Amino acid sequence: MDTTNKKKIVNDPVHGFINIQHPIVFDLIEHPYFQRLRNIKQLGLTYLVYPGANHNRFQHALGALHLMNEAILTLRSKGHSISDAEAEAANIAILLHDIGHGPFSHSLEYSIAKDVSHETISSCFIHWLNKEMGGQLNMAMDVFDDRYPKRFLHQLVSSQLDMDRLDYLRRDSFFSGVTEGTVGVERIIKMLNVVNDKLVVEAKGIYSVEKFLIARRLMYWQVYLHKTVVVAEQTLIKMLQRARELAQMGDDLFASPSLKYFLKNDVTKNDFTFTSSSLKPSVALIHFSNLDDNDIMMAAKIWQSHTDSTLSKLASMLVNRKLLKVELKGIPFEASRIESVRKQVISEHPEYENNIDFFVFSDSVSNNAYSSNDDSIKILYNNGELVDIADASDILNTQALSTEVKKYFLCYPK
User: Are 11 and 17 in contact (CB under 8 A)?
Assistant: First the structure.
């Protein structure tokens, strides 16, 4: 019989003391699949711009877990029925919401495995953990997948004002030092309520929600989509792309066994799935569970001396932060401009001619801070009226917040 004390307290630099209230949550935190998140940076390569941004997915998941418990306490205090089993399920769902992230978080999403999102991989991990734990995660899976009758529990996990966003904005602001991202998390949570099975915010919290939406927009352009972060991530993607090309041509590249698996094979969503009769996870899921940032950076350090000049140059750029130059603007770059840059680079670096697309390329990044869809943020007034934050706010330019802002970038050697 396991007599371990599983009701632990964790000291977090952002939220203070975090209580782990359910024994199964402790067991999940202890699982190797979850421990792996310690070695996956929350903000990918953002530390190349903001040196403090070295926090990881493990910390973020625990922070979101803490906010979930605070939200449940608030809703219970307002008379909403949430059983211990439902609270445990919501805890598990938020704890595991990011368990499917690969190395460097969003930076390599869709690059390690073709067209497979981290949400899809998270779902595969959760299904397997549920099998390992004899079905104890059934309710958590229903909450995670929005199948549970109390739909507001899913909104606490995934919506435009969920515990995930509330934690990552506060945490990313704290570690990057960008104070524009600071939001009144405690105030927002204290103002939460439920009407017609939908999560709403009481009118007294409207200013905190306004600040949250503005902070999210500022953090995207100042941190998440900072132009140097964009070019660093593109360099990482291009490096893996070239490594995959070489591996599939028969080059025995240095790589950990699990990274080698993803380089040599075009892994798709189907490779991650397994049946209820499976005795172990799929091969792809096993290899993915062994991958973290260390696999990529160790490979990059070795690839700097590879005989392929394209791979070695890209790896060297990444390891030594000698990145490409990047230009940003609001409209696409003209084809003639891109071609002119290509010719100039080839004249100065003839060795790049056959692989010029790895060194001169253009694409776009986009962001919208708010979406006025079915999942919109509703403000609850004292008379019971529900109003979309876009209409309730007298200071937000909600059209600007909800319109997708797209910026185009052009990268090339300095």
Answer: yes
Distance CA 76, CA 147 (A): 21
- The DSSP 8-state label assigned to residue 56 in this structure reads B
Number of neighbouring beta carbons within 10 Å of residue 325: 12
Contact 60, 13 (CB under 8 A): no
List, as own/partner pairs, every contact residues 260-266 make where C-beta atoms lie below 8 angstroms and the sequence separation is at least 24, other chains included. 261/287, 262/112, 262/113, 262/287, 262/288, 262/291, 266/114
Q: For strand 361-367 and strand 378-380, is the pairing parallel, antiparallel, or unpaired? A: unpaired
For the stretch 207-234, pLDDT in tens is 999 999 989 989 999 999 999 999 999 9
Closest CA to 67 of 244, 190, 173, 174: 190
Q: How far is CA 311 from the centre of its chain?
A: 27
Predicted pLDDT at 278: 85
Best CA proximity match to 380, nearest among 23, 8, 89, 75? 75
Which CATH entry fits the domain spanning 9-227+379-403: 1.10.3210.10, 1.10.10.10, 3.30.530.20, 1.10.287.1490?
1.10.3210.10
For residue 386, the one-letter residue type is L
**DSSP state, 224?**
I
Q: What is the pTM of this model?
A: 0.94
| Residue 129: pLDDT over 80 | yes
Q: Which two tokens stand for residue 66?
A: 């803490």
Q: At what angle do helices 257-264 and 293-303 cross, to 10 degrees?
A: 80
As beta bridge partners, residue 409 has 328, 363
Is a pLDDT exceeding 60 seen at residue 145?
yes
Domain residue spans of the chain: 9-227+379-403
Tens digit of each residue's pLDDT (9 = 90 or more) over 262-317: 999 999 999 998 887 888 999 999 999 999 999 999 999 999 999 999 999 999 99
